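Lab meeting, item 3. Inverse folding demo.
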């Protein structure tokens, strides 16, 4: 069973990592997305791609659709500012994950 520790967050959510399996849990608004560690990079790249392809961020209407599971059964709709918040939170988490990985590799060599 997973035991998550928060590694990044903002007022609308957080990213946490399991101390046992390194799986990740992304909470944003009222959505929870769980990823295996191997899925993290592709998910982050997908969010960046969506952000780059939706330059009009002035609308307060949720017009940006994230097709999270690559199926029609789970879609998440965001405004431009919500997408920016999600991206910034994921970038912060990615920086923390990279730092943890660097520290672990340094500890193994000592």
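The presenter then showed the designed sequence:
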């Amino acid at each position: 069973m997973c035991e998550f520790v928060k590694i990044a967050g903002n007022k609308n959510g957080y990213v946490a990592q399991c101390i046992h399996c390194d799986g990740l849990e992304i909470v944003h608004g009222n959505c929870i997305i769980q990823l295996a560690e191997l899925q993290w990079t592709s998910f982050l790249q997908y969010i960046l791609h969506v952000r780059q392809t939706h330059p009009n961020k002035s609308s307060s209407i949720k017009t940006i659709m994230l097709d999270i599971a690559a199926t029609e059964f789970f879609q998440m709709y965001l405004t431009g500012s919500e997408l920016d918040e999600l991206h910034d939170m994921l970038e912060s988490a990615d920086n923390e994950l990279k730092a943890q990985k660097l520290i672990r590799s340094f500890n193994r060599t000592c």
